């Protein structure tokens, strides 16, 4: 376990440095004058002139060389100081911590709904096969072919505009959470259900499962005692891979539904050229990805004795 945590810690450091550096390079490579874009974001498109832009350039040290700015940012990062927003002048850490809670709420509810959808569909297809398997395959391929924001638009058209049951966008009540989390969950469940189906079918056809039934256990008892653990290890590993889809989906879903999370804030910061917010949001997403993968590794470590043996050797 110590070796596993140490490897993840080194990965965390490398991800933080790599994501931050890449974001810095990409933002510096964007065309246009950053000082003018920030002045427009602060005061409005028609409420500033060139002297205002020059004051902002001097105030935010945008006239520094790229190397000076990079090493200044790197020094602040080592002190866990992400700086202040170039638009609002609020601390980046405070802004991101406010957004993070909303993003985690959306991602958590979306993952729970995805699990509640994927496991019944996958087990149903594995147990009965035939038309049930073909029907779930049709659902999976059809949904997976659609980008997550298209699923969101379809849900808005049906439940908000046509049936008028749920709000189109915004935040404030539990009803505002339903459509964005459902859009994210449907996208995740489309592929997860097929992985669960494949692994459940492997368990049902395995020799240890057949032997459990020969001993007199019913299919349900045999699956509860011997099937679940063998099913969960590869499924949990796949959910770790799907965390990339979660991060990608959260960015698009938050922008579509005006959900006040990191993805929504990141989109606004990119348009405003608010570099500290962009770097902080990208950095936080990278760190979240490593932390969540570490949690998945720990769960797999306790579920699968072979992983314990691998790290003990």
Automatic annotation (TrEMBL):
Main location: membrane
Descriptive protein name: Peptide/nickel transport system permease protein
Compartments it resides in: Cell membrane
Signal peptide span: none
Residues in ABC transmembrane type-1 domain copies: 100-300
Record field: transmembrane: 12-30, 104-125, 137-161, 173-192, 231-257, 277-303
Gene3D superfamilies (alphabetical): MetI-like
Entry GO MF terms: dipeptide transmembrane transporter activity
Keywords of the record: Cell membrane, Membrane, Transmembrane, Transmembrane helix, Transport
Membrane topology qualifier: Multi-pass membrane protein
Family that this chain belongs to: Belongs to the binding-protein-dependent transport system permease family. OppBC subfamily.
A Gene Ontology cellular-component term: plasma membrane
Recorded superkingdom: Bacteria
InterPro entries linked to this entry: MetI-like, MetI-like_sf
């Amino acid at each position: 376990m110590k070796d596993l945590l140490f490897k993840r810690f080194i990965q965390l450091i490398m991800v933080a440095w790599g994501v931050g550096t890449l974001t810095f390079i990409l933002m510096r490579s964007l065309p246009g004058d950053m000082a003018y874009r920030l002045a427009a974001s602060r005061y409005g498109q028609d409420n500033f002139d060139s002297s205002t832009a020059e004051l902002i350039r001097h105030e935010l040290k945008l006239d520094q060389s790229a190397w000076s700015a990079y090493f200044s940012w790197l020094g602040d990062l080592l002190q866990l100081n992400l700086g202040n927003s170039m638009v609002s002048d609020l601390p980046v850490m405070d802004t991101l911590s406010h957004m993070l809670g909303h993003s985690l709420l959306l991602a958590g509810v979306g993952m729970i709904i995805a699990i509640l959808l994927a496991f019944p569909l996958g087990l149903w297809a594995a147990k009965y096969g035939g038309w049930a398997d073909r029907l779930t395959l049709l659902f999976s391929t059809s949904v997976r072919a659609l980008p997550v924001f298209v699923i969101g638009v379809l849900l808005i058209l049906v439940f908000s505009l046509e049936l008028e049951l749920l709000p189109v966008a915004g935040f404030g009540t539990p009803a505002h959470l339903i459509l964005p989390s459902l859009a994210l969950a449907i996208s995740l469940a489309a592929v997860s259900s097929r992985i669960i189906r494949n692994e459940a079918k492997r368990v049902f056809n395995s020799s240890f499962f057949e032997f459990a039934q020969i001993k007199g256990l019913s299919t349900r008892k045999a699956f509860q005692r011997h099937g679940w653990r063998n099913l969960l290890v590869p499924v949990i590993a796949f959910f770790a891979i799907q965390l990339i889809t979660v991060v990608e989906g959260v960015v698009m879903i938050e922008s579509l539904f005006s959900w006040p999370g990191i993805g929504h804030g990141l989109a606004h910061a990119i348009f405003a050229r608010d570099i500290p917010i962009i770097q902080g949001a990208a950095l936080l997403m990278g760190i979240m990805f490593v932390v969540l993968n570490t949690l998945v590794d720990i769960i797999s470590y306790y579920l699968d004795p072979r992983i314990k043996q691998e790290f003990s050797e």
